[in-house]
Design a protein that fits this description.
165 residues, mainly alpha, 65% helix, 0% strand, elongated
């Protein structure tokens, strides 16, 4: 679906209107509609990449979970300040990802909780161990994508380094 939307965004709007004139004359995309579609495609592009990476069948993908989730969270934070048309989508994706991957965010200090982080989804240490031992990532994803104080990042680095025994 994303690829089809992306293709339609890159079409000349006048040519698109001409193609749709016969059977779809009631469908008339305004420049605002095209801007919304373009923004939506840009927003969802990183999600498509994350899905493609983590659904590999011929390679190990568990080491991609933490880097992908942290990168998506960072992408959503940036998008929250830059999007014009899709703010509600950004907000909903942010809330949903916080809930779905809370265990990751608690473990890296991006979310606080009074409860132990092992009751949340994706809290298992195996996701972090897999990312740490993967030479493509090591602890880089924590340094780049974790939006927490430097003290928290340093504490998390120590905790994660201790996991990699």
């Amino acid at each position: 679906m994303h690829r089809q939307l992306q293709c339609s965004v890159h079409l000349d709007s006048k040519k698109l209107a001409d193609v749709c004139a016969d059977e779809f004359s009631h469908v008339n995309l305004l420049s605002k509609d095209m801007a919304q579609l373009s923004e939506l495609c840009d927003l969802l592009a990183l999600f498509l990449e994350a899905i493609d990476l983590t659904q590999g069948e011929k390679s190990v993908t568990i080491s991609l979970v933490v880097p992908c989730i942290l990168s998506l969270r960072s992408h959503l934070r940036k998008a929250a300040t830059t999007v014009k048309h899709c703010q509600h989508i950004v907000n909903n994706l942010t809330v949903s990802s916080k809930k779905r991957f809370r265990g990751i965010f608690v473990r890296v200090g991006m979310e606080s909780t009074e409860l132990p982080c092992d009751i949340y989804p994706f809290q298992d240490k195996i996701y972090f161990i897999a990312a740490i031992v993967d030479p493509r990532f090591s602890l880089c994803c924590i340094s780049v994508d974790v939006s927490a104080s430097s003290d928290t990042r340093e504490r998390v680095h120590k905790e994660l380094t201790a996991l990699n025994v």
